[in-house]
Structure formats: C-alpha cells, structure tokens
Design brief:
By secondary structure, this protein is an alpha/beta fold. It has two domains: 2-121 and 172-237, Rossmann fold (3-Layer(aba) Sandwich); 125-171, no CATH class. The protein has nine helices and eight strands. An eight-stranded mixed sheet has the order 1-2-4-3-5-6-7-8, with helices on both faces. Strand 3 (26-31), helix 1 (38-45) and strand 4 (52-57) form a beta-alpha-beta unit. GO terms for molecular function: hydrolase activity.
Length: 239
C-alpha cells in the first residue's frame, strides 16, 4: 500500500492506493462503491487478470484516503485522474462498482467496465420520499440535528462534509454521460440487485454505444462470486 499527496483545485488530498503486478504493460484501475474501499476490489480481483498492472484506489473519504472537503463526482474524477497521471497510467481499463462506475465513466478510459454501476435515476420508495420530506422540514426549522435520523444508512456514520458530498452525488442522472461515452464498455450486473436494479443495467447498456451486457445470479456484490468469469470476459472483451 502507498499514498500520494495531490493538490487539485487548491484542495489537498492524501490518496491511498495499491498496485498489483507492477511490471505489467497494461493497466486496469479498480474504483469501489460508496461506503466501501479498495480492499474489497483487491480481495476479489487480484488473483486474476495477470497481464495487467492492477491499481486499487481508496476514493477520498473512504478507506485510508481522508477527505475534509465537500466534493462532487466531477471532483472525484479529477482527483483520480491526477493520481493516474502521477502513476503514468495508460487507463487501458477502468472498472467501477456502483458509485465508482460514475467516476470511471467520467475518466473516459479506453475500456470501461461497469459493475452494477450507479447513474440511472430510479423511483424512490415511499418511505425514502417520506424521510426526505421530513428532513427538509427539520432543516427549514433549524433542527438539523434531527435530520440525521432520516439519513441513508450509507452515510449515517459519515462526517458532515461526506454527508454533504453524498447529497451532491446521490441523485445524479448520468444518462447523458453514458450516451456520450464512445469507447468500449462491458456492463456486468447482479440479477437480484436491489440497490441498482437489473432494469437500470439494461438501460445503461443500451445508452452506451459499444457495450456488452452480462448478468449473474447475485445481488449488488455479485462480482465477489463471479470474479473469475468477469475477469475472463474482460480479457476477451477489451479493445
């Protein structure tokens, strides 16, 4: 494990990352989802894709990469891009799970791999709408402390700046970014995913101009049980 200090838009970041197969000539970069870290991606994929230099990154605010700022997804992409420049990465393949898929898309790699990616807006259940409604009322009344009761379980242990970051990114519609992406894309999904639905995955694949879509029996973390097959499909499907 290593750390690089970056300054992006006058903000200072210490980004934790790990490299596997350091002498390989092609790169694959792994970006985790919200609330996760690089270790889950490394534990799942490090045994495969032997012809690639693997770069596993803790996004700011997760794992061992600290963050004291309120960020947007574009900020995350700029930070990762700066790190990859320092690592002399060719961005041959970038694989993103969930929120990491949005960041990966903005980085415009030669080959994009999406694992149950976020980015397609879905209808919110009634109980979620109710929480949002009451949270807005409490904020309007100056009772911000009460809004923590209505926060998503993804962020209930996060600092205030990460909560505000979450608010910035949670309802983004990435359909335009997917439609504008013109390079090769491999889309993988869990058929029992309740965080990002199978229908969203199919829509995402239809928006991407050069994509293949593969689904597996599994939930939002379907790739844990299917890493070998996914890795083989990446090897056979990249440009």
């Amino acid at each position: 494990m290593a750390t690089k200090n970056l300054i992006v838009d006058n903000k200072n970041f210490d980004i934790s990352y790990e490299i596997v197969n350091p002498t390989a000539k092609k790169d694959i970069i792994f970006l985790h989802g919200w609330g996760s870290n690089k270790d889950i991606m490394k534990n799942v994929f490090s045994s495969y894709l032997k012809d690639f230099r693997h770069i596993y990154i803790d996004l700011p605010g997760f794992g061992k990469s600290l963050n004291k700022y309120v960020l947007t997804t574009k900020d995350y992409a700029k930070i990762v891009d700066e790190l990859l420049k320092l690592l002399l990465s060719s961005k041959d393949v970038i694989a993103g799970h969930s929120y990491g898929g949005k960041v990966a898309t903005l980085l415009n790699p030669k080959n994009l791999v999406l694992l149950s990616s976020a980015g397609i807006l879905e209808k919110k259940p009634f109980d979620v709408k109710l929480k949002i409604f009451f949270a807005k009322i409490f904020n309007a009344l100056g009772l911000k402390g009460f809004t923590k009761k209505f926060r998503s379980t993804d962020v209930n242990t996060m600092s205030e700046n990460m909560y505000l970051t979450f608010k910035n990114v949670v309802n983004e519609d990435f359909t335009t970014f997917f439609s504008d992406f013109s390079s090769n894309a491999l889309v993988f999904w869990g058929e029992k995913d309740t965080a990002t639905s199978l229908e969203s995955g199919k829509k995402m694949a239809s928006l991407l101009k050069k994509s293949t879509f593969t689904s597996y029996d599994g939930d939002h973390f379907f790739f844990v049980q299917n890493a070998k097959n996914i890795s083989e499909r990446i090897e056979n499907g990249i440009l």
